[in-house]
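Entry — protein

Goal — fold tokens:
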Amino acid sequence: MSTRSRLGWRNSQLLLNLVNLAERFESALEERITGYRGSDEISDMLLRHFGYAPYGPARRGKRLRPQMVMRAAVGEGAPIEHALDAAVAVEIFHNYSLVHDDIEDRDELRHGRRTLWSAYGIPQAINAGDAMCALSFLSLEHASAHLDAGRVLQMLALLHEAHAVMCEGQSLDLHFESKRSVDLSDYYRMIECKTAQLFDASCRLGAYAAGCSDAVIASYGAVGRSYGMAFQIRDDVAGIWSTVGETGKIAASDIFRRKWTFPVVWAITQEPSAARRVIADAYALGNPLDAATVGRIVEALDDLGAKEAAQSAAAEHLSVIEACANDELREFLLATLGLAAAR
């Protein structure tokens, strides 16, 4: 067999394995959600949120966090069974956080569908989110069928720790909405807690599932954290310059709510100018912004080059990801950032 043929065979086998990985995960997640045996009201909300019958098709998306868990574990030589429960757990946990985020941010749409609170009311949506949180930890406990109980306990503690840190990040994000200025260091602290922490935990959970040493587990956490920082900055860009068809949310919704995203925080740190003053004056009012003001802010951000600055800031976090020795995880992370070709 030629070298090219061997590489082609390896790539085709890898593709089949990754497809199988995804399908195994989807089946396990659906089984966990549809198997909920609590109240009919909560069950209905879970089915609606995840898009299972009668609310299909299922919302799959990129499944970033469970993919991190599985690719970290399988890349370290572990069978998928050792990582599957942790992968399901982080996806359910992530969705719990989304349900509560939608309430706190008053978002009525997520990926083009009505959010739970907008369909069922805030009290019921809070209950559904809490049920997802409980299900996530119960899912992780199932890992004891394949892993040592002590290791599963460490994994549970890790997810609880991530939960606490994410709450801090969300609190900072909400607090910033009433502040008249936010500096870059505070912004970075907020996204490290709110977004990067669960990516960090996802990579570490995969390494735990594979039985890795403490040092290797910590290195995987650094990869996830760097990815999370880059991911959030790029998401901030999408929240301003993408359309509802691309994100499922109203265009520039972050600015309407006066969110302190990277482009805005960066713009206000620049030298005095007419464009900077438009943004600073609008955000200093401390109130949600109207459509005309939002339009002027976006134009001012364009004039200052805020989009390009955000893209450069996101790219600064690539070196840790590129140094990851796990090929499947590294290439997946770079590809989802749209930056694989830059390596």
In short: The chain has one domain: 3-52+59-342. Residues 1-12 have pLDDT under 50 and may be disordered. Residues 3-52+59-342 form a domain with the Farnesyl Diphosphate Synthase fold (CATH 1.10.600.10). The longest helix spans residues 3-34.
